[in-house]
């Protein structure tokens, strides 16, 4: 096909608007119809219309407003066509008026008001299944498709697609509101939003050695969302804590692999390879958060990252403080993953035997049996106590459960090093 | 539900590795099998001879045809299989991701047809 210069320009303008405004436009439309799926459909049709129209007639002065007008018409058409039986004429009239008003509002303003936070609260509503909240936010705010999300969460695209459709149906049918909750209700509801962003970031369990693997391909998206929440709610200490935590992890991402692709644990990383700009930003966020007077799990996790960075940069032993932070985190979360981290830190202050005693029991949580870092932590502590056979077996389990080949080779080297 | 995990790998790849790398690679498969056994999901597994050892048989119009080589001649061939018993597809996917073949080749998962459901 022969591309004209106008086509190229229209395409790149449409793509730029899509990147910048997708979530904002979905939020603005869905907040008025309470129907996320129809907002998404209408918007994708509007983008297709833009690609057909803009090369012929030139890019509009206000591309967002143009897209909004087209999407609004598409929504009204779709409602008239498909759901005539379900929606009374009067109701359709009200919906149409609300959308007309919204479009007029959007055209009169230079910028469409940002209601992405309200949309995130709808997606992380307690009535929505906890496991689908993070994927739902990734889809509606960032426009990620079900296939990409399914792959990041290690699930089948068909199943993920179905669950996303069901969740959007639930928002519509249950009449879940698109509002930022009132002051008194906010902390609990914000937790669900932060948790969903955290899930996108950690994509399951987090790594006990603070080492992290390269498989976290959603960290950039999580960083974007965490930043967005702090921009919209600048006085929420836990939102600041989460952004600090994500920044700290992201700052060390490149240092986690050697030049030949081998896994490098935290203790062996070169601090010069870390992104110091991100680290400074994270530190400033944690200071700001601590001035706001409410400590929670994300600030504690951020503080732990900060303590690891300080120790590696200065060489000054701070394991006593690290154990204290883990104590606080364990009391808050009761998570066996935190308990494993804490056990490794205890081994640094009180020896490997004490560390082993602090490792949670597989009997307490069956999922630990299939959790690689549990076995890696046990192996490391067993090796330090001299129980080499047991350590060897624990490494064997860890190797068999790991999916990242670089980490697998790292564990194999540790296992091979047990002899002698 | 039972799933067959078929490990598709580049057959020529193994020969290009050093002896240490080969041992490390095989040990990773051993650890993977052990982990499946310990978790109680393992049903069966076999490593297969290279596809050059394959023979394809077809009978058409009463005449049998025997061909040397694999059914489909591609660079990546089934190097082995694992049969596992897990609650659902997501569990099967998480085991497939741990299979070393999924990082140097690809793993196809197929649910096993449940004949028991027909008999019942």
3D shape of chain A: elongated
- C-alpha Rg of chain A (nearest Å): 25 Å
Following the backbone from N to C, one meets helices and strands of chain A in this order, namely HHHHHHHHHHHHHHHHHHH
Helix content of chain A: 55-70%
**Could you say which structural class the secondary elements and strand pairing of chain B correspond to?**
alpha+beta
Number of strands of chain B: 6
Q: Roughly what is the average pLDDT of chain B, rounded to an integer?
A: 92
- The tally of beta strands of chain A, per DSSP, is 0
Class based on secondary structure composition and strand pairing of chain A: mainly alpha
H and E string of chain B: EHEEEEHHEH
Q: Strand share of the residues of chain A?
A: under 5%
In DSSP terms (H or I, runs of 4 or more residues), the helix count of chain B works out at 4
Which stretches of chain A of 5+ consecutive residues score pLDDT under 50? Answer: 204-216
């Amino acid at each position: 096909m022969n591309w004209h210069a106008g086509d190229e320009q229209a395409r790149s303008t449409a793509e730029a608007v899509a990147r910048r405004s997708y979530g904002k436009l979905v939020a603005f439309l869905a907040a008025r119809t309470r129907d996320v799926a129809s907002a998404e459909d209408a918007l994708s049709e509007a983008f297709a219309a833009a690609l057909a129209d803009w090369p012929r007639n030139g890019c509009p002065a206000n591309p967002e407003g143009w897209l909004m007008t087209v999407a609004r018409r598409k929504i009204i058409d779709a409602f008239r066509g498909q759901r005539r039986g379900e929606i009374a004429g009067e109701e359709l009239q009200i919906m149409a008026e609300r959308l007309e008003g919204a479009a007029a509002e959007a055209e009169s303003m230079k910028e469409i008001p940002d209601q992405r936070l309200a949309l995130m609260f709808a997606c992380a509503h307690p009535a929505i299944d906890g496991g689908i909240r993070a994927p739902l936010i990734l889809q509606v705010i960032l426009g990620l498709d079900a296939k990409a999300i399914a792959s990041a969460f290690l699930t089948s695209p068909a199943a993920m697609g179905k669950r996303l459709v069901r969740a959007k149906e639930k928002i519509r049918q249950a009449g879940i509101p698109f509002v930022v909750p009132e002051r008194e209700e906010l902390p609990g509801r914000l937790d669900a939003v932060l948790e969903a962003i955290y899930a996108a970031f950690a994509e399951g369990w987090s790594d006990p050695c603070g080492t992290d693997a390269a498989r976290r391909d959603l960290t950039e998206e999580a960083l974007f969302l965490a930043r967005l929440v702090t921009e919209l709610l600048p006085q929420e200490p836990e939102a600041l804590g989460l952004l600090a935590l994500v920044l700290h992890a992201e700052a060390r991402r490149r240092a986690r692999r050697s030049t030949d692709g081998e896994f490098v644990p935290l203790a062996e990383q070169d601090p010069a390879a870390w992104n110091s700009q991100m680290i400074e930003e994270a530190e400033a966020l944690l200071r700001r958060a601590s001035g706001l007077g409410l400590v929670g799990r994300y600030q504690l996790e951020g503080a732990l990252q900060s303590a690891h960075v300080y120790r590696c940069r200065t060489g000054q032993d701070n394991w006593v403080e690290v154990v204290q932070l883990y104590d606080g985190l364990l009391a808050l979360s009761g998570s066996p993953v935190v308990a494993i981290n804490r056990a490794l830190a205890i081994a640094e202050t009180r020896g490997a035997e004490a560390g082993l005693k602090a490792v949670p029991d597989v009997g307490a949580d069956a999922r630990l049996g299939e959790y690689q870092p549990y076995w890696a932590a046990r192996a490391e502590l067993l090796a330090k106590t001299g129980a080499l056979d047991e350590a060897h077996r624990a490494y064997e389990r860890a190797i068999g459960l790991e999916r990242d080949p670089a980490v697998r080779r790292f564990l194999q080297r540790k296992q091979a090093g047990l002899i002698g | 539900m039972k799933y067959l995990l078929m490990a598709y790998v580049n057959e020529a790849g193994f020969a290009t590795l050093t002896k240490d790398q080969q041992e490390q690679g095989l040990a990773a498969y051993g650890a993977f099998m052990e982990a499946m056994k310990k978790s109680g999901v393992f049903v069966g597994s076999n490593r297969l001879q290279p596809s050059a050892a394959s023979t394809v048989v077809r009978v058409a119009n009463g005449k049998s045809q025997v061909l040397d080589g694999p059914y489909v001649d591609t660079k990546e061939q089934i190097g082995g299989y694992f049969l596992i018993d897990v609650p659902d597809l997501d569990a099967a996917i998480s085991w497939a991701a741990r299979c070393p073949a999924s990082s140097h080749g690809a793993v196809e998962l197929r649910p096993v047809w449940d004949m028991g459901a027909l008999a019942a």
